[in-house]
Amino acid sequence: NFSQSNSARGSMQRSEKLGELCVNPIEDNQAAQPLNLLVVDDSDFNLEVAATFLDSLLVNYSLCSNPLQALELIKGKLLGPCQECRVFDFIIVDFEMPFMNGDELAKEIQLLEEYKEIPIICATAQEFSKGDVPTLFTEIIIKPLSFSRMQDLVNHYGKPRATLCTCPNPKATEEPQELVKKRTSKLPKFE
Q1: pTM (two decimals)
Q2: Separation between Cα atoms, residue 189 and residue 100, nearest integer Å
Q3: How far apart are CA 135 and CA 153, in angstroms?
């Protein structure tokens, strides 16, 4: 299971509870766009590509490799003390995932009062016929996701805040920077 958070550039962290990778906003926060998004996809490769795009766009993000992790993260953030980062500005979800599909995840998220108006974008390789398009999504995009498409989503759905949250993840402990380099060294470079 892969779960990661980042603010432009940060230090790699490992969550004690879930044994997941997390990057917390620690350094160079002034360069990041003060908006926060969540990407949920069961493919580690797709999450790595999304992370590369979002790093290039200097956006705060969290990544989850399954919908149950995503729900736990969303609910956990709602209980957090920081008002700036309690709710994601928008969420991108894969449609076909284990445990629950993207449509079921969107339904669960939208049951939370704070998320009733938050855009949820479905990223899928599946083509829907006109009558089968899930209605819980703000938009449906076809994979693979390109850098320009991610940039369009950030520009369209991102709501920049006046300030950038720098609160630490209370469940995380520091991991060596070499782990960050190892995980990202195989990724394609995007300009």
Answers
A1: 0.71
A2: 32
A3: 19
